Amino acid sequence: MSHRRRSFAASPIAALALAVAMSASALAPGGARAQTPAEPTGPVQLTGMRTWVAPAGTRLVLEFSAEVVPVAPDSGAGPQLVVAVPVPGITAAAGVPASLAVNDSAVTSVQAIYDASGVRFWVKLAPGATFKVVTVPPGDDQRFRIVVEVSRPGAQAAEDRRLASIAAAKKKNRTRLVVIDAGHGGEDMGARGYGAAEKNVTLSIARQLADALNGIPGVKSMLTRDRDFFIPLHERYKIAEKAHADMFISIHCNSSRRRGHGSGTEVYFLSLKGASDQADKDLADIENAADLVGGVAPQAEDDMVNVLYEVRRSSMLERSQLLAETLLDHMAADRRVDARGIKQAGFAVLKSVEFPSVLVETAFINNPQEVKLLKDPGFQQRMAQQLATGVKAYFAKAGVTLSPDSDDSAGSGSR
Questions:
Q1: Predicted confidence (pLDDT) per residue in 314-365, tens digit
Q2: Residue 411 to residues 172, 173, 192, 400: CA-CA distances in angstroms?
Q3: Does 414 reside within a domain?
Q4: CA-to-CA distance for 137 and 64, rounded, in angstroms?
Q5: pTM (2 decimals)?
Q6: What is the residue range of 340's domain?
């Protein structure tokens, strides 16, 4: 439980204060958002109120110009949730809505009610929904946020059934399943440069890679996300494990701390002993911070890094290295982007021992020349095709049979 939150019992009288309702089209990130988290020079402001809809539920993000102390339960269930911010004089920044009409199967609506004591957010929940409330400290270009995670009733069970169905179809049709992970998503924008956001570029390339892989006989693909929502890092590879994947490829865009510097593409596989060099460690630290951006508490190391898995893990790391080498060989065919080599770092998303896993840094999003390529649909398609060809070549090198008799309905899927 956060030491900054206290229990709060709301009065239903406050529900009479309804503000102007927003249309459902405003939900995909709505509200105002400041570009940089500058220190406030006046009263505290609500700088953003937005929702993100995912298969498991809905995420409500309340963003502020300064750190505040919310009064709300940590978790629970019921028809509504009230999050109070007792800061006298708090106001909404220009463009921030007073209410959101969500109307999905997790959240019905959100209303911000201001009075002399501060502001209260009334979150009306769908029947059976449960919620968690966390605070996220400011960092880099992110302001202080209160994140309300509302789980849709039965969503996890339905997702487990979907993944089990994909695994069963894969076994029945003797296909090889490649899970493609589009890095970042939702509240986690990833790296940005020259008008491009990493989360959008990675999703576009991932979709095209999925299509290219589905065109290879004996291979099927599945996306960890097929639209703009956040997934915690450990859940990404667990999705692949539940579907009994044969391979996991996480797509990202590189970025340098120095604007305009850095170029080329590189492929990483997991290191358990530290990164190849300081720059690789810095990159892994940035990517591993995605959970913090999304409001997920730090995860303890789980059983897969236990010494009992040492033999299996070593074998999988060897396969991951072969996969990384093969993919980069094919990506290097595009002379517009230099190949920076195969590297190792402690990326949290690569920690499964069930299949070879790699993280592809496609190009530098803060490089003015390379960001033009990353935003170009033609480049994205060529990158996807090169990766697909590399996947097929890897299976051949690893002695993995691709059955030409596979049924086309073999359970490709997205989330």
A1: 889 999 999 999 999 999 988 899 999 999 998 999 999 999 999 999 999 9
A2: 10, 9, 34, 19
A3: no
A4: 10
A5: 0.82
A6: 155-397
